[in-house]
Amino acid sequence: MRLNRLDLTRYGKFTDLSLTFPAPAAGGPDLHVIHGPNEAGKSTLLEAWLDLLFQIPVRSNMGFIHPYQTMQLGAELEIGNRTFDLRRVKKRDNSLLDGNGAPLGEALLHGGLRGLDRASYAAMFSLNRQTLGEGGASILASKGDLGELLFQASAGLNDLAAQLDDLRDETEEFLNRTGRKGRLRELGHAFDDLGKQIKELDTAAAEFARLSTERDQAGKAWTEAREAVETVQTKEVETDRLTAALPLLPRLDRLDAQISEYGALPDAPEGWLAELPELDRAEAAIATRLETARAAVRELQAELQETVPDQAILEVREDIAAVEGLRSAHDEAIKDLPRRQGDLASRTEAMQESLSRLGKTGGDPGTLILEAGTMGRFRELIERSSGLETAHDAASRELEDAKAGLLRAERRLHDVGGSASDLGGLDGLVQGIRRDDPLGTCDRATERAEEAAADLKTALAELVPWSGDAAALAGLAKPDHADLQRLEAEIAEADRQAERAQDRMEQLELARDQVRAKRDAIGATTVVTIEEAAQIRSRRETEWSLHRAALTGETADRFEKVLRLDDQITSTLAQHRAHAETAAGADRDLAEAERQLEIARTKLEKANARCSALGEDLARIRASVSAALPACMDIQAFRAWLDRLETGHKALERHEHALRDQVRHQRSVERARADLLAALSRMGHEVPEQTGLPLALETAQSLLDRATQIAALREAEAQAREDLARRETAMQVAVDAQAQWQSAWDAACADTWMADASPGVSEMRAILEELDRLREHHREVADLTHRVETMQANLDRFEQAVQGLALRLDMASDDPVPDLWRAVSTRLRRAERAETQRADISKRLATAAQTLTQLEEDAKIHHGRTAEFARHFGVATWAEARDALTRSGELSRLRTLRRELAEDLCARMRSSTVKEACAKLDGLDTDALVARAERLASELKTLRALQEEAQDNFRKADEAVKAVGGDNAVARLEEQRQTLLLEMQEGARRYLRQRLGLLAVDAALRSYRDTHRSGMLERASEAFRIMSRNSYSGLAAQPDGTSEILVALAAEGGSKQADQLSDGTRAQLYLALRIAGYHEFARNNGPVPFIADDIMESFDDDRTTETFGLLTEMSRTGQVIYLTHHAHLRDIAKTACPGVHIHELQA
Amino acid sequence: MTFKFVHTADIHLDSPLKSLALRDEGLAELVGNATRATFSRIVDLCLAEDAQALLIAGDLYDGSQTSMKTARFLAQEMDRLAAADIPVFVIRGNHDAASRITRELTLPDSVKVFSGRAEVVETTWNGHAIAVHGISFRDPHAPESLLGRFHAPVQGAFNIGLLHTSLNGARGHDPYAPCALADLQASGFDYWALGHIHQRAVYPGVPTVVMPGIPQGRDIGEAGAKSVTLVTVAENGAIELEERCLSVAQFERLEIDAGHLSDWSDLVAHLKQSLHRARQDCDGAHVIVRPVLTGTTPLAWRVGRDADLLHAEVQNVAEQIGTLWIDKVENALKAAADAPRGGAVGELAEVIKTGSLHPDDPGVQEETERLLKHLPRELRGLLGDSKEQTADIIAQEMQQGALELLARLEEDNT
Hints:
The complex is a heterodimer. Chain A is α/β, with parallel strands linked by helices. Chain A contains 31 helices and 13 strands. The termini of chain B are far apart. By secondary structure, chain B is α/β, with parallel strands linked by helices.
């Protein structure tokens, strides 16, 4: 894949930026350097490239100018020899579009990138300073493991070793190396604990079976013991029975004897004996009670005959009650009548008086009293009249006040005198002058002018050695700033070049001296010429021929001598040749050194010439400014002087400006003064021509003040006039209201007896009061008259009734009526009392007679009963009958006792007859029975103890079985145990997967190493050698157990492990590995663009150049883009790769 | 008069629920001992419905259980039915035959446990003549059909057969008293009360054949609503079946298609939504869910790596819901399957897939043995029971582990 063009249409800070990457010449390098200062957007560019390839992320931070929905990138890409015009927009789906905006599948790019995803591509094909540094550090972490390093470099991953270690540590949290720690162990303990708890709580089926058997056996034993106890208990009861029955026989005999003593006595019927005490008591009481009752009847009959009733008065009892009803009215009349009559007389008199006060003596009050409506109308009019009076008074008083006020205002206006003159705009003029304050402004301008003059003076003094006045200063021209700046840069560059040339020359001289010394050391050697050698060789041949012919010792010796000489010559010749070569080499070196030196010298001279030429340029410029400047002034001093000149110019300008201001303000003061004087004279206030502005201003102000006063007085007069008019209107209203009232008054009087002479208000008020009183008197007189008449009638009715009664009762007499009435009343009460007494006596008599009859009945029944008793026992009297009855009772009791005893005996002996029982007891002895009972009791005690024990055993066994219970505790624990098992299982699976995964990854890395070792290591080694400028001859793999370690081979011999390299070198080693990784990928998959972002900041220039060489080499395989903000790297890149494309990115 | 009875099977009393969700003590408290609670509810149902009988077609317990407390609990529950005059008909299944507690237990007289020989109990329910046939497993294994041993149907009675059977054989199970549905249908019975298979099945036709399924699922393998069957027989002989869910907790496997997702937060949101919906769709009081992520997504690698984070997210949602619990999150996602990964990572992955290390490698053996040594006895079979099985599992785990690890290395670097 190749990037031909990248469009940042709407992305980050960019709008419609397009970068074109022209295709290289065939076989030429495809290297691009994008240079841009900080903030130019290099990082954005890289991000854009990734977003183009792999979609713009959902939450991109590149949407700060162009909103998400408008973001767009574009590119022309070359994929597999075809060119594609693509666009990328921000969308969830179908975000990759072709040139026509139709959606394209991601597969195109995916294929072009050989299946790399964003992370992998970014890791493998983009590199920056940080990843380079981390790469170096990760070499250290991997301890040089070759497999890891090769993989890391290819994949662009760092920190592989540390991460693998972390993962290993993580697994140890579950189970550590020794198996003594970790989560698994904790879970295992908990699991075992639960197991123990279950064991304690649970009852297994087998255990349950054992418990059941035990319980059944104990149950059986208990039943047996119980049965033994019951047997002995039965025997004991039998013995007790016999012992108790034995004493009953003698008692039975005794009772039989007592019964026979009574002989033949008739039995008393049931219940007679119980009646005996009651009959005894009745016998004594009945006679006494009969006598008492008869005496009482007699006494009451006598008393009744003595009481006689007064029949006459009782017959008129109702009439008397009617008269009693009239009595209270009569009594009241007697008491109240005189007082009421007195009241009536006094009221009548008061009424007459009232009439006379109204002037109508003897008149009929009924005609005089007014209707309520009329009275009301008068009262309302009276109330209104006082309000109208008051209003009228107030209106007339205020009218007077208003008249006086008007007079006063007219007088004051007159006193001030004269009318106001026309002020003709004086007011506006004065206000304008006060607002502008020309005097103050003028003073301040003067002050500023003085300050500027002082500044100018100082600036002139600063310009030494030049001297001159302000005019001269203004005449000084400044040289062109750009020219000067360029000149300065050129001088600096020339100086630097001269300095560098000087250094270079010195270095070269040193080198030349070394070379020369070396050459001198070689020196000269004995010279053997070819001719001499040929001569000796021919001598050897000659001697050989002689020796061959003679074969004597002498010839042999001679031949040997010549042979040795020849050998020596050959050797010397060879030596000489070698020496000569060395010397020639040294000579060449020397010549080269000299040549270099010569070049350097020329360069130095050129540089110096350049310096002086620039010096002359400077002098020319300086002279053009001023001849006064000394020749020794260098560019920096000149620049400083020019800065001061700038300051001087500015001071001059400020001073001139201040002077202009001052003059302007003085003029405005003068103008104000003239305007004011003119205005005053127009108004007729002549003032001397030389009057100053302040005085003129005062005069004008006093004129203005007076005008204001007159205007105020005029205003007051006008107001007073208006007030008077208003008061007059008010007065008229009050008068009208009074007239209206009077006609209403007259109308009201016309309807009454006062029509002929209508009275005034105060009169009417008195008349109305009197009429009120008259009405009151009139009503009272009528009322009292009626009451006096009623009382008199009541009195008469009562007296007539009493006298009527007395006549009917033969009690008539001349006594006053009250006495007569009292006598009648007394007689009636006495008659009524006698009547009540008689009724009472009759009632008591009836009761007594009834009691007597009852008693006689009872006595008859009693005597019948006692006679019956006597008849039964065959006796005559109650006393004898009584005795017989008592004895019969005793006999009956004895017979009952005998029967009970016999029954008891039979029951005890379980016999049906006494005879049978006696037969059974015959021959038994109390003592023997007691002894037997004791023996049985002791036996029973033992058996009972045994039974209790058996019962206890059974209970315990039964409880044990029941204790098993159906609770769920065990099941719950089992469930917890299962959960722990699951957790362990889950953890174990994960642990194993991770541990085995680690092993598998290790193995895979070894495999990777073996596959790539040859190709990558060689290339990395070469790259490292070049980058290190031969400080290292390369890299090698060194076996170390199962792994292999990467070592660097030092040029001076020996190998260095990763931890022995400097940080910078390690970073370069990492870069070398990455370069090798790049080639490895490209070889297997084809190229994809590689982007490096300022990775060589820590490299020196030489290594930088070499590295650019390596990048150039890479770019022959695939496109390489290098981003930088260092300007000088452009030159280095050009040196290393003349075909490089430089792109400038503007800030 | 109609009559009704309750038919259940495979109670597996006191068999524990198996789920990592029970690590939550709150849940363990709520649904602990669910098999018991469910059995009590079955008894409650009989009482509430005034059923004429309870039929239990085998597997009251797990075979391995020996706790008499389980048996005592069963006896207590049976007493409750006895007090209400509701008879119980029980046959023993393969698990019961293996259980010792079966032999030690005394049950009320109202419980009829059929013996290993075919028996028939004739009785009357609500005025109807009923014949209940049954035969128990004598041994834990019954490779032969038991159907031939049953008595002939009683004439004039409603004939019910109790049989513990794997029918034609369920996959992954040994055959237990196998028999063909057709043979059951030809038996002349009116109702076949089956047991053994934990998934409910009703076979239409005459007679009615019902496999009620387990009433309380115990792990994710027994997912879905579980029930007992309430059978009502009308005067005219029509049989009405009602499924009554009485389980305390319900397991649910929740397949979640994440194929269309590529963003982590979208995945979490989608999961959340699915869980809420799952809760709404489920009637049970407590649902224990295993979300299974499926589909092809670039998130596959990350889900593998950040399983703990994802679990925490899901757990959080579950806590908000309150009555939904997470068993565990299963990752069945596939990374883009057909597009091979490029670069060195892809190459290394290929190496791993071809098996970079043999299961017999001493290093692998050492790791495996060290782990197994520290596992409790119950987990010794973690890696299978045969040498081949173990080698397979190890190879699989190793590859899986290595790929996960690779993904994680790559993620950590970006």
